[in-house]
Design brief:
two-stranded antiparallel ribbon; globular; mainly alpha; 1% strand
Length: 469
């Protein structure tokens, strides 16, 4: 049994298999997927919350710290995505480096990351939609825009947008990519408008004190504050660049295009985050930003109602791309695990007309729709972060392990200064996990325990690598 759970999976191509996906995405499609996933809730929603409750104007430093952790991880992702490929992202890399049990744990972890991330973004999307409708004097009833925990019945817009995206993903990945590209352009125009207005309305006194919460402290109720705690929270803003690697099996030239898409999208988005966070806290005092739509709220406060309404509309399109890409990534990870036998083979059937895994798309859509409607944003975001950080740390370690165990594996892209950069990525991601609240850790452990039960009762015996098959 000990040998079974550590069996590794060799690099394998599914291009000619019945359960294969269509290669149709270019390098720029992949880059836009990355930008579409990264620039969203982090910049339009969490920036204000992190500034108001955890870091103050020093939220800029939080973004820089989280960005460095991500850049080290991104270089590792680029190396493994080019060398190993596959649609399972970190799950597939872990299978090759550490063996089946660890691969299942990371895959299970990624299901939590992507699924909850889509639900969390849907919450932010709903808030901006209602703000736009309120500006038109047709607000939705509160009972239909809030989770039960916040006094409502269901967050109906959050649930419905997931179902709409479900239909788009069923139609096909190339069509989804085209829709994503168009919405990314709208999102970038929106950010440009904010920067153009904000840069002439900065009041430097709003940046004082710059670090009102210090570097880090744990409050009596177990919550954490400070720049490092803020970095752990805004790390959610970077969730998404790894979704590019889930598209390896649908990329036209994955060895060349995946590293380009991952690194280009991450570097571009990091610069945008730093600029917007600095301007946002310079335009209004950080204490006024603890709202779910801080960018539009800040412009309202300084009297630019027209810009606020325009940005709310652009943000709605922008957050839609985040949900679309993360939802897409989730379905490809479930698909990869199902094809390997670690989840039911029922899910890995590809529709011959659309060449998409329709069963997975529908199941994930229905579950996420319920979560988005019934859980509030704050609880969702922290759960996503811990899962993502764990996956990133494993990918960085995987680069080091595979350099030792498979030195002759073709590597079209190599992470520079190895093992230094992978080690720095592993340490920074693991370190950020320590600054998350205790309750988040408890929920994470419960999810992993459920996963281990699934593995030892089903996955281990049904794996494609199982000796009993």
């Amino acid at each position: 049994m000990a040998l079974q759970i550590f069996r590794t999976k060799h690099v394998q191509s599914y291009d000619d298999a019945e359960q294969s996906l269509k290669r149709c995405l270019s390098a720029w499609d992949l880059t836009f997927l990355g930008v579409g996933a990264i620039i969203g809730t982090g910049i339009f929603v969490l920036t204000g919350i992190a500034a108001a409750t955890q870091a103050g104007p020093a939220v800029v430093l939080s973004f820089i710290i989280a960005g460095f952790a991500c850049i080290f991880a991104a270089l590792s992702y680029a190396e493994l995505s080019a060398a190993i490929g596959g649609c399972g992202s970190a799950y597939g890399y872990t299978y090759a480096a550490f063996g089946e049990l660890f691969a299942f744990i990371i895959g299970w972890d990624l299901l939590l990351e992507y699924g909850i991330a889509v639900a969390a973004v849907a919450n932010g999307w709903s808030s901006y939609l209602n703000k736009a409708l309120s500006a038109l004097a047709i607000p939705l009833p509160e009972a239909l825009t809030k989770a039960p925990k916040l006094g409502g019945i269901i967050n109906l817009p959050a649930s419905l947008i997931i179902l709409i995206l479900m239909v788009l993903l069923i139609i096909g990945v190339k069509q989804s990519a085209k829709a994503n590209n168009a919405m990314v352009c709208v999102k970038l125009i929106t950010i440009s408008i904010f920067i153009g207005v904000a840069v002439f309305n900065v009041h430097p006194e709003n940046w004082h004190p710059f670090m009102p919460f210090g570097w880090f402290q744990t409050l009596p109720d177990g919550k954490t504050t400070g720049v490092l705690a803020g970095a752990s929270m805004v790390f959610f803003a970077y969730v998404g660049f790894d979704a590019v690697s889930t598209a390896a099996e649908e990329a036209k030239n994955p060895q060349r295009d995946l590293p380009f898409g991952i690194i280009t999208s991450l570097v571009f988005c990091t610069v945008v985050y730093i600029v917007v966070a600095g301007l946002l806290t310079g335009v209004v005092h950080y204490s006024q930003l603890n709202v779910e739509s801080p960018v539009a709220h800040a412009l309202n406060l300084i009297g630019f109602n027209w810009a606020s309404a325009l940005i709310s509309t652009g943000v709605i399109a922008g957050l839609t791309t985040v949900m679309l890409v993360l939802y897409y990534g989730l379905t490809r990870i479930v698909f990869a695990m199902s094809r390997d036998g670690l989840l039911s083979a029922f899910f890995c059937k590809v529709n011959q007309t659309t060449q998409t895994p329709v069963r997975i798309i529908v199941l994930c859509g229905l579950i996420i729709s319920l979560i988005a409607g019934l859980m509030p944003l704050g609880d969702l975001a922290e759960l996503v972060n811990i899962g993502t950080l764990a996956a990133f740390a494993f990918v960085c370690l995987g680069v080091i392990i595979l350099r030792i165990t498979q030195p002759d594996l073709p590597r079209p892209f190599r992470s520079p200064f190895s093992p230094l950069f992978p080690v720095l990525g592993m340490l920074s991601c693991s370190g950020l996990m320590l600054f998350l609240p205790t309750l988040t850790w408890l929920r994470f452990v419960i999810w992993l325990v459920i996963g281990l039960i699934v593995y030892f009762t089903y996955s281990m015996h049904n794996s494609q690598l199982s000796e009993n098959k």
